[in-house]
């Protein structure tokens, strides 16, 4: 199908983009990579009056270091995140999760910020963003503000972004030397995650010094598996200890039931896959 | 809106509605019907083309987003009537039946080799996860891609290399993001 | 002239002729066609599964930019007639009138309600949103078992029942075997099982598309169809239009798998609208429309009872089916399960057999043929039963099969369901498959994994199969009340330069006819492969045909070509004899050359062609033509068979299934082109595996298809499938000169039960006896861990 007609504007700076967004009002949509938005427009499930394309805003692309954090521009494509040496070195979990997003063509166009702002709880980048304590840098008419990931994801497809605000960059605390694994479970390669587990750990000697675990598609927002993390800290990096910690993975989750998986099965998967993800991370 | 796009080496200046999808621009305004539409959710990959050297699903890109860009399609692969080694490999290995997915499959296979010139079977299968074929069961497609990889590798012979390089040469943006991405 | 012996084309792995345009993008898909003044059509579809249409307001849409016409069912109620059903399986079959555009009621979600014709596709789609339809919703019928229970809600109120027809076969009544009830009563072992064949969607890659040009003397329709000839006839009969005023063209067609074996509402609407407006009209469906509105396949509930002796000998089989027709009977909808009736006995000697099938209406998309049509369903059920019987008896599953199958020395063999299998060798195919598979080593590994309680368990699945294919014998089809014959037509024309045009009534859409037919004709006429051109898919150049489905093209269509070729040779022989001044009986024909027996005097057939064109010196009474036509109608079906072995690894902690290896050995008779054969097998396997593990059309309680996009309807990608090991054994078919049996459906038929048997086998020791298809991780996990929680 063909989208309903809309006006189109392609600002070249964040300032212009914020201005365009304020001017266009509530029926405007921001076009990032377009890999979620364009299918929605084609199916005519949405009909914005104006599209504000961020494709020409150069300052929104790229990864840089800023002290103890990496700063990833919202319009950096998945393909570029996957291959970025800074991300590989300081945010391995993000690289591993990005590897699993959709398919190569989509990763060429789709953007990190677009995925975060779309806030689909089945999306693969939300749980890593949450687990790694990232911060969202948001630009609006009144300037910039920063929101922690834990406060950013509000509900299904709903974030702390106001209608006239843009996500411009994501600050990722460096996890240098941490091991990571993203364990994705789905029915076919292209499908969204039924459940996935993002795990990154810092190992000291034979035990786990620190751990961050996030869950994909286990609630209306990504879920942080705090109980698992607490059980892992100080535990020996053995399969038995990891399994015992992973048994807490479903605590605090409220997954949905659908044709692929009912809630009980999802919670079972969360426990099993958490064990696998942490084990893989430790041995990676 | 006025856009300027280079498609298969030819520059076009055209007026398009903002809502025009790149694939519809190619098919309906430029008559490049070699690229086809197979779905509306960007799952099937039949519409895959290269946009500034990277494979994209042209049903999920607006024509206006391609303004100032280079687009390469299945119709631009031949050189002087000689098939590109990937096209030849698809033919040699019976990697198509009805042929509807083939343009997208070939374009994605080229992208795959640009990143990984010598993929194993698993890597080929993963690299084609965004392209659906209903006829072949994929086995001969995998064979074709590996066959083409062999033929496009250095030492494969001057003619094959020439054709391969000319197309690969268009993959200009294969550098990390620090260069600014696309 | 050449004197060396020419290497035969038949049997050679020829690269396909048709690839040249397909790999370069120089294709001729229907949606590529652009005609002067062409308009674009878009269709408004019902969002609800069952409702009365209380009002349709099109006034706003009519006034929108670019809109030339808005058409509702009421506008064309008279003209559209009823979509055809060509297979009234019983005299009292109930078949409600099937409108192309709904008039008073909608019976399934996705049914066409109105059409907009506009100057651009975008404008047509814009105007759809401005049409206001009021629906008074009615209760929906979704579950087949409930639908045939007393007091059920009705899909079609005026029919008074949801049962369209019940079709029965009983071996005692037919005199082909014993009484099943007696066999069950006397059975030393009796196994009862119920299986569900989930609803599938053919999901051909090219969405359906139609262009109608009403501006010529003949109205021309291009359509992405498998059946241009049948379509022309049906349009004429359905719409009351003179047949000779319609030309149908199937240009490049992007897959079908039975899904384009249909006369569609969209074709009828486009036809009527274009004719009314006097301008060309194009309609191309979106993928979501395709998944919702193009016919679906499978969807049966199968209840089986098998009786056997303790030594494994089957003594009786009783089959009771419910088959979901959906809301309407399309072209061959009611006959699909009936094709299966002949296949439940499969390759086995079953002394008593009873089959009964009730076809049921529901408020869902109509079903119809999908790759294998009836035969995959039957094969699945019997092959699952063979495993269940083996478990019951504590026997090796292959041993139970061998105990019961027809031995190679017993052919021809007439089965309990009346078919005569002409040839086969199940022992040979099975032995070869076992060998390629490494059967014994895998069984040993399985035992080891079980013993150590490995979280990943190994399963071995077996399926043998045979199928009745080459859907043809017109007499048999007639005895089954099918509305047409099953012959095929061809013409072979030698042009003055010795080049050959072959016209085939088959209508390929990926099968490679242009290549295979060329190989056959090149050998037969002794001309180069490149000198043969195959014409098809246009009722103007190919005026007669029965088209492509049911693995019939080679066994019937190519045989017609061969027959026409023989006639050409006979004509040429007379002329060659005249040229060489001898009697025709003294002329031998070999490798393209006519030779006077016992001499070295000869003339090539391509030279004869030029002499015929000149016509300066032809024998008396011989027409100056080397053209011939022929129609072939075989005496029997063909019966390919094979043995498929699948090893799966099942992750008992998550339920995830991985195919570790897949081996199939098929016997499809003589092989024309091994490359094409292998491709057909691979593709068939992928579709059969997809049924076992991935695909299912799911409706919610309101009758809405929840798998209405490729996000939810899981067509597997390369990353989801393994590589296959394929092999062949060859026992030639005796029902045709080529010795061929057909290969298009084989892979699909055998692979589904092989995979499911393997999944069940992997976890059988954990107390699992069956897993419903598709075997999703959740279903597998729940089966292992004590059912749904």
Automatic annotation (TrEMBL), chain A:
Domain annotation FAD-binding PCMH-type: ranges = 1-177
Keywords in alphabetical order, please.
Answer: FAD, Flavoprotein, Oxidoreductase
Q: Does the keyword Ribosomal protein apply?
A: no
Top-rank taxon of the source lineage equals Bacteria
Concerning Pfam families, the annotation shows: CO_deh_flav_C, FAD_binding_5
Annotated GO MF terms: FAD binding; oxidoreductase activity
Record-given protein name: Carbon-monoxide dehydrogenase medium subunit
TrEMBL record, chain B:
Q: Which UniProt keywords apply?
A: 2Fe-2S, Iron, Iron-sulfur, Metal-binding, Oxidoreductase
Q: Which GO terms describe its molecular function?
A: 2 iron, 2 sulfur cluster binding; metal ion binding; oxidoreductase activity
The residue ranges of the 2Fe-2S ferredoxin-type domain are: 1-77
Q: Does the keyword Oxidoreductase apply?
A: yes
Q: Which Gene3D superfamilies match?
A: 3.10.20.30, [2Fe-2S]-binding domain
To which pathway does this protein belong?
Alkaloid degradation; nicotine degradation
User: Does the keyword Cell membrane belong to this entry?
Assistant: no
Q: Which Pfam families match?
A: Fer2, Fer2_2
Name the chain's protein. Carbon-monoxide dehydrogenase small subunit
Species of origin: Tamaricihabitans halophyticus
Q: What InterPro entries does the database record attribute to this sequence?
A: 2Fe-2S-bd, 2Fe-2S-bd_dom_sf, 2Fe-2S_ferredoxin-like_sf, 2Fe-2S_ferredoxin-type, Beta-grasp_dom_sf, Diverse_Oxidoreductases
From TrEMBL, chain C:
Q: Which Pfam families match?
A: Ald_Xan_dh_C, MoCoBD_1, MoCoBD_2
**What keywords are annotated for this sequence in UniProt?**
Molybdenum, Oxidoreductase
Domain (Aldehyde oxidase/xanthine dehydrogenase a/b hammerhead): residue spans on this chain = 24-139
SUPFAM superfamilies in the cross-refs: CO dehydrogenase molybdoprotein N-domain-like, Molybdenum cofactor-binding domain
Q: What does this protein need as cofactor?
A: Mo-molybdopterin cytosine dinucleotide
Q: Which residues form a coiled coil?
A: none
Q: A GO molecular function for this record?
A: iron ion binding
This chain belongs to the protein called Carbon-monoxide dehydrogenase large subunit
Q: Which organism is it from?
A: Tamaricihabitans halophyticus
